[in-house]
């Protein structure tokens, strides 16, 4: 009995969404990305890991009867009835070229490559749009104030989707600014972990060469088998 | 002696109205006493003095107003606003002329043209204030 | 000990660290402690003079709203946000005054802030630290704390344009101010009056029209030197940068110009009150004041008594 009910539910539970202006009836349980593919779109740009980490699938949408612009990662957000959406294949914001070794962890280092940071109006549109719920405006302000450590900490969860830069009235590419702050922080404010140095030494000494060679020699099926049979628990215990 | 014919039609009146709207000031309050220009510490660097610029606004001479360097030499120190006998916020008029240009997509300061060396040494307080006044 | 919600502003964490550290040190000594707001944004440094640009008014109101929350966590703190910078002082005061008079603007800004769980209810006052020193602490108490009177320093106060204009923001009489004068005297220094005490230094033109700043600074410094000053005291980080840096540039370009150091008012207080010299960050100055201070025996000797 319950089986047929679920089937019925599945059939009836569809929502109407508007992808780039055209209406599509899609199952309500889908994410935006899957709904687009269900509707027949083939996503060439604007999709990556499909797990909420790579930041490639930024989507902007509005809802029926709501003036607000919403933003999300398409692979992480379920469709809602009446959504009017489009995917952003790319956010045009050039990255500055710099040599992090020749900089200092100061506001000047940020302003030198991203002077538009000084145009921040503190409107907070960037924080409101961030799918990672980062306090974007606050980390931009920390950059302006030269509090690089706080900026790095606050921007840590950034997936570089670029939605903040799309919404910024001061035209700041916040996600690139945060990256610079984290690089400066990592280089100058934190100590290099000993384990990292050990691992680098191991790699240089060829400790893992044998293992890699073995993997490289495997066939596709052999690799698959190794992957499915991998066991993290045992390694941790060991 | 030669005379210049000045047009005073819709375009001119629209310009005056917009400047009045942005600044919140009545441009015709000014009776051209010249106290603003006399007290301005930058008068010697302006191609048109402050009261002359106000006169041009009163006449709706948009092109001449926007071409002047007066509003861009003004640093909003407010000496003129404090001293105006007609209680006009003269600095707000200068700001309105600046904003008029900036809202038409004109940038007085092109940020990408500032050298890296200059950005490295300038304090952020200078950059913030400059960009707020001179970029749109 | 009264605690004040202190708003540093963008500059005091970067190239003006000495101004902040000295201020915090003397504020503790004078039992009017400056406690930094936990999270703050730049106020915008200049107030928009337009009637219709709400966007540029959001930053200062956000500062006031956050400071209001901060006040709740402090001891005996009045509803005041204290700033060390005259540009912050002016911007915050003017916008605060605007929204107190105009409910419509306040509503529009609060509508923007609501989503960030911030609301401003016009229940804050903005104070420059100089006002706290004059009105709450008092010059008498400042004099009492002086252990190293600034004898030999001939100081000319330079207010700049933001401290004395306009009506809503000024901290003293616009033509005859005496707050810096009284402070200088209470620290034991000699006062040198200059007529160009509020002759604008050129402010933000330093970015794209440096010649304007340089000619202004030349006049300001010459006027003070002609009257015998061997140092200037300022209360605005941008004035401090402009006058300091331009003097250095001028000294490089022409012979016979002898630059004079520029002090922040809190640095003078810190020296007079015997605070460690290093909190002044004199190395950040373009004209290092240390040689003059050493020559006058104000630093670098064993503490008298």
Q: Could you characterize what this model shows?
A:
- The complex is a heterotrimer of chains A (238), B (136) and C (305).
- By secondary structure, chain A is α+β, with helices and mostly antiparallel strands.
- Chain A folds into 3 domains: 2-87, Roll (Ubiquitin-like (UB roll)), CATH 3.10.20; 100-189, Fumarate Reductase Iron-sulfur Protein, Chain B, domain 2 (Orthogonal Bundle); 194-237, no CATH class.
- Chain A has helices spanning 2-12, 32-38, 107-113, 125-129, 136-144, 148-154, 163-167, 174-189, 194-204, 209-217, 220-228, 232-237; strands spanning 14-19, 22-27, 58-62, 70-73, 84-87.
- The longest helix of chain A is centred in the C-terminal third of the chain and has 16 residues, at 174-189.
- The model of chain A has no long low-confidence stretch (mean pLDDT 91).
- Chain B has 136 residues and is mostly helical.
- Chain B has 2 domains: 10-105, Fumarate Reductase Iron-sulfur Protein, Chain B, domain 2 (Orthogonal Bundle), CATH 1.10.1060; 108-136, no CATH class.
- Chain B contains 9 helices and no strands.
- Chain B starts with 9 loop residues before the first helix and ends with a helix.
- Chain C is an alpha/beta fold and 305 residues long.
- Chain C has 11 helices and 8 strands.
- Chain C has helices at 17-29, 55-71, 86-101, 103-114, 129-137, 139-145, 179-186, 210-226, 237-253, 265-272, 290-295; strands at 2-7, 32-36, 80-83, 125-128, 154-158, 190-191, 231-234, 262-264.
- Chains B and C meet through helix 1, helix 6, helix 7 and helix 9 of B and helix 8 and helix 9 of C.
Which SSEs are present, and which pair or pack?
The complex is a heterotrimer of chains A (238), B (136) and C (305).
Chain A: H1 2-12, E1 14-19, E2 22-27, H2 32-38, E3 58-62, E4 70-73, E5 84-87, H3 107-113, H4 125-129, H5 136-144, H6 148-154, H7 163-167, H8 174-189, H9 194-204, H10 209-217, H11 220-228, H12 232-237
Parallel strand pairs in A: 1-5
Antiparallel strand pairs in A: 1-2, 3-4, 3-5
Helix pairs in contact in A: 5-6, 5-8, 6-8
Chain B: H1 10-23, H2 35-39, H3 50-58, H4 62-67, H5 70-73, H6 79-83, H7 90-103, H8 116-121, H9 124-134
Chain C: E1 2-7, H1 17-29, E2 32-36, H2 55-71, E3 80-83, H3 86-101, H4 103-114, E4 125-128, H5 129-137, H6 139-145, E5 154-158, H7 179-186, E6 190-191, H8 210-226, E7 231-234, H9 237-253, E8 262-264, H10 265-272, H11 290-295
Helix pairs in contact in C: 1-10, 2-3, 3-4, 8-9
């Amino acid at each position: 009995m319950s089986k047929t009910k679920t089937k019925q539910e599945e059939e009836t539970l569809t929502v109407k969404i508007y992808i780039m202006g055209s209406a599509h009836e899609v199952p309500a349980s889908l994410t935006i990305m899957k709904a687009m593919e269900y509707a027949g779109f083939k996503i060439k740009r604007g999709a990556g890991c499909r797990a909420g980490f790579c930041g490639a699938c930024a989507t902007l949408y509005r809802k029926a009867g709501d003036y607000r612009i919403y933003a999300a990662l398409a692979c992480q957000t379920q469709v809602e009835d009446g959504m009017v959406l489009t995917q952003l294949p790319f956010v045009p914001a050039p990255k500055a070229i710099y040599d992090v070794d020749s900089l200092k962890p100061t506001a000047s280092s940020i302003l030198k490559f991203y002077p538009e940071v000084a145009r921040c109006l503190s409107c907070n549109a960037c924080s409101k749009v961030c799918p990672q719920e980062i306090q974007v405006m606050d980390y931009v302000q920390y950059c302006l104030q030269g509090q690089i450590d706080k900026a790095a900490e606050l921007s840590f969860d950034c997936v570089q989707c670029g939605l903040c830069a799309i919404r910024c009235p001061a035209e700041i590419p916040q996600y690139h600014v945060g990256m610079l702050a984290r690089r400066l922080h990592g280089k100058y404010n934190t100590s290099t972990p000993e384990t990292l140095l050990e691992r680098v030494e191991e790699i240089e000494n060829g400790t893992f060469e044998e293992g890699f060679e073995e993997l490289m020699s495997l066939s596709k099926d052999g690799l698959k088998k190794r992957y499915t049979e991998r066991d993290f628990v045992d390694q941790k215990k060991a | 002696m030669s005379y210049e014919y000045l047009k005073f039609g819709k375009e001119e009146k629209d310009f005056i109205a917009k400047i009045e709207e942005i600044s919140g000031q009545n441009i015709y309050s000014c009776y051209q006493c010249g106290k603003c220009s006399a007290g301005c510490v930058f008068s010697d660097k302006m191609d048109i003095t402050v009261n002359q610029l106000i006169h041009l606004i009163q006449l709706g001479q948009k092109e001449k107003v926007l071409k002047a360097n007066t509003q861009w030499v003004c640093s909003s120190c407010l000496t003129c606003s404090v001293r105006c006998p007609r209680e006009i916020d003269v600095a707000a008029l200068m700001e309105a002329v600046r904003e008029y240009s900036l809202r038409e997509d004109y940038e007085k300061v092109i940020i990408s043209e500032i050298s890296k060396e200059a950005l490295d040494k300038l304090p952020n307080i200078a950059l913030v204030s400059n960009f707020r006044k001179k970029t749109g | 000990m009264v605690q004040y919600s202190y708003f540093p502003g963008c500059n005091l964490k970067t190239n003006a660290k000495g101004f902040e550290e000295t201020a915090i040190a003397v504020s503790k000594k004078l039992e009017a402690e400056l406690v930094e707001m936990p999270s703050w944004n730049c106020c915008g440094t200049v107030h928009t003079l337009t009637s219709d640009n709400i966007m540029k008014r959001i930053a200062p109101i956000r500062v006031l709203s956050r400071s209001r929350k901060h006040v709740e966590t402090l001891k005996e703190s009045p509803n005041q946000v204290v700033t060390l910078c005259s540009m912050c002082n002016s911007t915050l005061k003017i916008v605060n005054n605007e929204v107190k008079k105009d409910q419509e603007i306040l509503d529009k800004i609060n509508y923007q802030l609501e989503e960030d769980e911030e609301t401003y209810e016009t229940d804050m006052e903005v104070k420059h630290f100089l006002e706290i020193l004059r009105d709450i602490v008092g010059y008498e108490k400042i004099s009492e704390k002086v252990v190293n009177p600034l004898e030999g320093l001939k100081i000319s106060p330079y207010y700049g344009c933001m401290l004395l204009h306009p009506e809503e923001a000024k901290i003293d009489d616009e033509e005859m101010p005496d707050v810096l004068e009284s402070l200088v005297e209470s620290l034991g220094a000699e006062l040198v009056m200059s007529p160009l005490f509020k002759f604008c230094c050129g402010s933000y033109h330093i970015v794209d029209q440096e010649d304007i700043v340089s000619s202004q600074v030349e006049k300001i410094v010459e006027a003070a030197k002609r009257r015998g000053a061997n140092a200037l005291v300022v209360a605005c980080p941008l004035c401090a940068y402009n006058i300091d840096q331009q003097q250095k540039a001028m000294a490089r370009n022409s012979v016979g110009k002898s630059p004079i150091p520029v002090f922040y008012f809190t640095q003078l207080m810190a020296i007079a009150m015997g605070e460690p010299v290093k909190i002044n960050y004199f190395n950040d100055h373009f004209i290092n004041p240390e040689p003059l201070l050493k020559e006058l025996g104000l630093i670098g000797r064993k503490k008298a008594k």
